[in-house]
Design goal:
The complex is a heterotrimer of chains A (295), B (754) and C (160). With 754 residues, chain B is of the alpha+beta class. Chain B is built from 20 helices and 32 strands. In chain B, a hairpin with a 5-residue loop joins strand 14 and strand 15 (228-232). Chain C contains 5 helices and 5 strands, in the order E-E-H-E-E-E-H-H-H-H. In chain C, helix 2 crosses helix 5 (143-159). The chains are: A alpha+beta (295), B alpha+beta (754), C alpha+beta (160).
Chain lengths: 295, 754, 160
């Protein structure tokens, strides 16, 4: 591996100035579960690695029923799914956090890192898109917000400009009778890259019988994770039934433009989009209803 | 549970003591190959080919030699000229030029990952960085990675000096087919005429890897006195010594191999890869050189087992009697000749009485790493073909699949297609145990669920083993053996000596020692250690016993003929002492008591097994879940039942992985696309249920305690058992292995639409 | 050229100082500098779990941690699981249950299983299989490993 230096700033300002100072030579280290492998395998290079885990804002995990969730970019998965409030309010997020690698990976890997790595098959990103998360980014010219749906630009590429740092992800407060789910298909039961991943969020009406609005997002079926707009829009006002989920699955397939590779053929992936859309919608409804009963 | 007959009463055998090396292995103290530390140690790394097939036009190492920390660089030219040198390396004659060419390529690279040059430097990272400075000029050639493609006349040719050997006749033109084997018994044409039902099917299997968790590693020190010492993780320290000596053209006694603890092998750690290269680097730089392989290199340049194409036809009468079989097996050998086709041909019909059979086998070279043994090498492929056709025949004949197998099961006197006639074997007992098992008797309810069974056979070899035991002053016995311990064999060997001497298992202290410290011992492979090394320590025990009796007579001043021994107690008239107490007294009055023995049993101990799989298939995704799994096997006599069960469970789970998801994915460029544990999908703990075991014990008449090897048979039935279970669950016959979700989903969709 | 960094950490209850390259992995430093070779390198990219150690109580792949990140941290390796010459119940149950064959994956399994029992003293078979899925074993088929963890959990509960 090409040697690199290491630094661990404790403020966002310091991190941003380090990034600018080492323009192009610096890589951000959160959990390291992607970047260290890439550096070792020569897929990326670094002159210096900037460890952002000592910056308080990047370790945030603030879950509030009125203001929503603020998730620091380097907060590890295990901490996220270890938080009961987050599990209740944002189950698609914790579904994903629970299956990114094994436990050893989850102790380190962060959702921010998963997002910045911008893999088309990243498990957390469809969940983030479904949950309508927004990325808060700090840079030399101050802070800005980027909806997660617009964050990934190509495989391994993201919308961060030179010198910019992902600080946190902000999730809207959960609305009444809403819930979510993320599922992926993998050949094994753990330790695998998604062949297809689907995240679904929805809100039911007062009666729990009708879907008021929904967001469905897909992974591993395009160069970036995608928001299945047609399916999501169509779901508004539909009854919460298996037939609805199946039809939504059919529509979601239209948003998929996968390739064939060793993990699956394009045909198989498109088919799985339908299956997983149906299953995640059913799961999200089940959770929304259960929550209503419990609440 | 143990079933069988002629059960002798043993004191030690059949118990479950804690393994002698256990404490070291649960505290992190055991020294594996990568844990070796030596004064002045430096690190070696290997430059590997980025091409699947290319001519090497030039190699320029000058810049690497100038790089920071670099001490030495070697290329294929540093090996002695070995053209046409043949060596006997335990498993038959080996052309040394091919072996050395696999370690460091000379004129051509034959697969992606083929080693081209090696660097030694002060740190591993310096060695890695220096590799980037080696300039290799390649002329890429077309590559071929599927066995049937490689057999075509116009296929890219790997070696222009290899002609097809067909029963001793050489083909005129050079070919990728190195060998054509042919076995025949009876009259196949007549046999098929008697058949009421004939089924013929084609099968394809992908290459799979042994998947040991410890990458290959070796440390070599070429000392100033010319002696070469090697620390390595190997299945055979003596065969590693011999291969290294032959490749370097130095006398075998100039080399000492120190076997470290070994992190899995399954057949893949018999051939040397790093040892001679580390030795060459050490000779150049005068320092001990440690080399460890990356996981990627393990996949791309070691193992795997062959990919295969098979076409098999079996005929039976309506009464359920098999009358004829015909098999065409083409196995890939990887980049050099000498794959696993021989055992594949011998195993394909090995479980049943085939009065008429013919088998043709082809050993085919292509642009993949040289194949290596993987647990019953070649047998799993063949069993897939035979056992799924047997399942179809049983269904057609409306017979229970176990019943049909029982009606045709190989037994004492059955002649295998390649000639040998079985002595007493335990297949019928295994089938009976399977039939009677709670698992088979239980009903499997629910949609998309199915049960499959399959049988399997492996030879289990004997070969050379040596051992020495010293009786200590406290009456405990130190045992020196040459069999490297991969799965608890220290325990099973020490227990056989303890049983022979009539002492407690804990009173025998086994040590796996280097090649200077014990007699020649063949590899830990072929399911031979508990059998053959066990025979050696039995003889060691008998020799110690004889000395003890003689010496007791001196102690007691009685006639030697009057001394007897039973259950470890030595007696003569009013004198009587157990082994340990007698040993203490003997130590006080005379010289040390030492026993040594060597054995070389020939032939095979014939291990049979049967497995039962219950699966559930998700019809929407094609994913298979294993609900319940039972392994039934004849162990002859289980020495340490826990480790016998462990072999059965481990082999079955490897086979489940092979059946469902493990495979080498090759791109059009001939390059492997999934050389990592992430994308080469071995089962995790979450992918399998508990694996139930039934040990059947039909004692092997060729062994003092009745032992049959157990390590390999368990991987023979699983792929077929899983395929039969998937059929039962879905009505779809999968003959393209692995039955990965995309393939099974496609097959289900096609069935739906037809 | 990068400069070596001095790091202070607590390893198996003892304070240790070491020098490392800023790019070196924790696994590399544990093995090569601190001579704690219990953690094994199986893949060097986080897919096999043989290098598992506890970092501030959480199981991590030490091949995917930089040694410099260990500054101020508490690390437990397999060498630190036995206390005062007494094997941990997990180690004892692995031995009694023959839960290892070649033993190369054993340190990683013990470390992860210890983290599991520390957090959940009474796990189900399914929970054990899930949490140990990041540790590959190629010899045992997992059966005896899962049973050993269940047995150790039972022994620990009975002892308390």
């Amino acid at each position: 591996m090409k040697p690199f230096d290491y630094t661990a700033p404790s403020t966002i300002a310091d991190a941003v100035s380090l990034l600018s100072q080492h323009n192009g030579e610096a890589r951000v280290l959160a959990g390291g579960t992607d970047i260290l492998v890439q550096l070792r395998e020569g897929l990326r290079e670094a002159g210096i690695v900037i460890d952002v885990k000592k910056i308080a804002e990047l370790r945030a995990l603030d879950c509030c029923s009125t203001s929503g969730l603020t998730l620091g970019a380097s907060t590890p998965c295990a901490e996220i799914y270890g938080n009961a409030d987050v599990c209740t309010a944002y189950p698609a997020l914790t579904d994903a956090a629970r299956i990114i690698g094994g436990w050893q990976i989850q102790s380190r890997a962060s959702i921010g890192g998963n997002l910045c790595n911008a893999s088309p098959a990243a498990d957390s990103i469809p969940a983030l898109i479904a949950l309508n998360a927004v990325a808060l980014v700090a840079g030399p010219n101050g802070q800005r917000e980027i909806p997660v749906a617009d964050f990934c630009t190509a495989p391994g590429r993201n919308a961060l400009a030179a010198g910019e740092l992902l600080v946190c992800l902000q999730f809207p407060a959960p609305s009444a009778k809403s819930s979510s789910a993320y599922q992926r298909f993998i050949p094994r039961n753990e330790m695998d890259i998604a062949v297809v991943g689907v995240g679904s969020w929805l809100q039911l009406d007062e009666s729990g019988q009708t879907i008021l609005s929904a967001r469905v997002a897909l992974g591993a079926v395009a160069p970036t994770p995608v928001f299945a707009a047609e399916a999501s829009d169509w779901l508004a006002g539909k009854p919460a039934t298996e037939d609805t989920y199946r039809q939504a699955g059919e529509l979601a397939r239209k948003s998929a433009s996968p390739i064939s590779d060793m993990r699956g053929t394009a045909e198989y992936r498109v088919h799985l989009v339908g299956v997983l859309t149906q299953r995640t919608l059913a799961k999200a409804v089940q959770r929304a209803v259960a929550q209503r009963a419990a609440g | 549970m143990a079933a069988g007959s002629d059960q002798k009463k043993y004191k030690v055998i059949g118990t479950r003591p804690i393994r002698p090396d256990g404490a070291d292995k649960v505290t992190g103290r055991a020294i594996y190959g990568a844990d070796v530390q030596l004064s002045g140690l430096v690190h070696g790394k290997i430059l590997r080919s980025p091409h699947a097939h290319a001519k090497i036009k030039s190699v320029d190492v000058s810049a690497a030699l100038q790089a920071a920390g670099v001490l030495a660089v070697v290329t294929g030219a540093d090996f002695p000229e070995l053209k046409d040198k043949i060596a006997q390396l335990g498993e038959g004659a080996v052309n040394l030029a091919y072996l050395s060419g696999n370690l460091l390529a000379r004129d051509k690279v034959l697969y992606k990952g083929h080693a081209v040059a090696a660097v030694a430097a002060r740190t591993a990272n310096q060695a890695e960085e220096a590799l980037k400075k080696i300039r290799v000029e390649y002329e890429p050639l077309p590559a071929v990675t599927w066995v049937l493609d490689a057999m075509q006349d116009d296929a890219p040719l790997l070696h222009d000096d290899i002609h097809t050997d067909s029963m001793g006749n050489q083909s005129e033109k050079p070919s990728n087919i190195s060998t054509h084997l042919h076995f025949e018994t009876g009259d196949v044409g007549q046999g098929f005429k008697q058949a009421d039902v004939v089924i013929e099917r084609e099968f394809k299997t992908a290459s799979v890897h042994q998947g040991y968790i410890e990458p290959h590693v070796a440390t070599a020190l070429w000392n100033t006195d010319g002696r070469l010492k090697i620390w390595t993780s190997t299945q055979g320290s003596f065969t590693a010594r011999q291969q290294t000596a032959e490749l370097l053209q130095i006398p075998v006694s100039q080399v000492t191999v120190v076997p470290c603890e070994i992190g899995g092998g399954f057949g893949g750690k018999i051939s040397v890869y790093l040892e001679p290269v580390a030795a060459l680097l050490s000779r150049k730089c005068g320092r001990p050189v440690k080399m460890t392989m990356t996981r990627e290199a393990c996949f791309e340049a070691t193992g795997p087992t062959p990919g295969s194409y098979m076409r098999v036809k079996i005929g039976a009468t309506k009464e359920g009697k098999i009358v004829a079989g015909e098999a065409y097996l083409a196995y890939d050998a990887g980049a050099y000749p000498g794959g696993m086709i021989g055992p594949g041909c011998m195993c394909v019909f090995s479980c049943y009485e085939f009065p008429n059979a013919v088998v043709d086998g082809y050993d085919v070279m292509l642009n993949k790493p040289k194949t290596q043994a993987y647990r019953a090498p070649g047998a799993t492929h063949a069993a897939l073909a035979c056992e799924t056709i047997i399942d179809e025949l049983a269904e057609k004949l409306k017979l229970d699949p176990i019943e049909f197998r029982l009606m045709n099961a190989a037994q004492e006197g059955t002649r295998r297609v390649d000639g040998p006639v079985y002595p007493r074997v335990g297949l019928i007992e295994c089938l009976e145990a399977a039939k009677a098992s709670e698992h088979y008797q239980s009903s499997l309810k629910g949609p998309n669920r199915g049960r499959g069974v399959a049988a399997g056979f492996w030879f289990n070899i004997g070969l050379k083993s040596a051992a020495t035991a010293n009786v200590n002053a406290d009456g405990c016995v130190t045992l020196l053996e040459g069999s490297t311990d991969i799965g608890g064999s220290r325990a099973s060997i020490a227990m056989q000596l303890a049983e022979t001497l009539g002492i407690a298992a804990e009173d025998v202290h086994p040590a796996v020692v280097d090649t200077d410290s014990v007699g020649y011992t063949d590899v830990t492979g072929g399911s031979r250690v508990t059998f053959a090394t066990g025979m050696a320590v039995y003889q060691v025990g008998r020799k110690i016993r004889a000395q003890m009796m003689e010496r007791a007579a001196e102690l007691w001043e009685v006639d030697a003929a009057s001394v007897s021994e039973a259950d470890g107690v030595y007696s003569s008239g009013e004198h009587s002492l157990p082994f340990k107490e007698l040993a203490v007294k003997l130590h006080e009055i005379g010289g040390p008591i030492v026993g040594s023995a060597s054995v070389n049993p020939q032939g095979s101990s014939n291990g049979f097994g049967v497995q039962i799989a219950d699966v559930e298939v998700d019809p929407e995704t094609g994913k298979v879940s294993v609900l319940r799994y039972t392994v039934i096997q004849d162990a002859g006599q289980a020495i340490h039942p826990s480790y016998v069960e462990g072999q059965m469970q481990g082999g079955a789970v490897q086979g489940i992985g092979w059946a469902l998801n493990e495979e080498y994915f090759y791109g059009d460029d001939g390059q492997m696309k999934n050389a990592s544990f992430l994308d080469y999908r071995m089962p995790t703990a979450l992918d399998v249920p508990m694996i139930e075991t039934i040990i059947v014990e039909v004692p092997n008449p060729e062994h003092p305690f009745g032992v049959r090897g157990v390590g390999e048979t368990p991987i023979v039935p699983p792929v077929a058992a899983m395929a039969n279970a998937v059929y039962a669950a879905t009505g779809v016959r999968m003959r393209d292995i692995p039955m990965s979700p995309p393939k099974l989903w496609k097959a289900l969709a096609e069935k739906e639409s037809s | 050229m990068t400069k070596k960094v001095q790091v202070s950490a607590t390893v198996n209850g003892e304070t240790v100082d070491f020098l490392c390259e800023p790019w070196q992995s924790l696994l590399d430093v544990l093995r090569e500098e601190l001579h704690l070779t219990g953690a094994k390198e199986g893949c060097n990219n986080g897919n096999c779990g043989a290098c598992s150690v506890l970092l501030d109580g959480a199981p991590v792949n030490s091949c995917l941690v930089l040694a410099v990140e260990a500054e101020g941290a508490e690390i437990t390796t397999v060498e630190g699981i036995a206390q005062n010459g007494q094997l941990h119940p997990l180690q004892q149950c692995f031995l009694e249950g023959a839960a290892l064959q070649c033993g190369i994956c054993t340190p990683g399994f013990l470390v992860t299983a210890k983290a599991l029992l520390d957090q959940n003293p009474n796990p189900t078979e399914e929970q054990i299989r899930f949490e140990l899925a990041g540790n590959l074993c190629r010899c045992t088929g997992y059966d005896k490993i899962i049973k050993a963890v269940l047995a150790a959990a039972k022994n620990l509960q009975e002892a308390n």
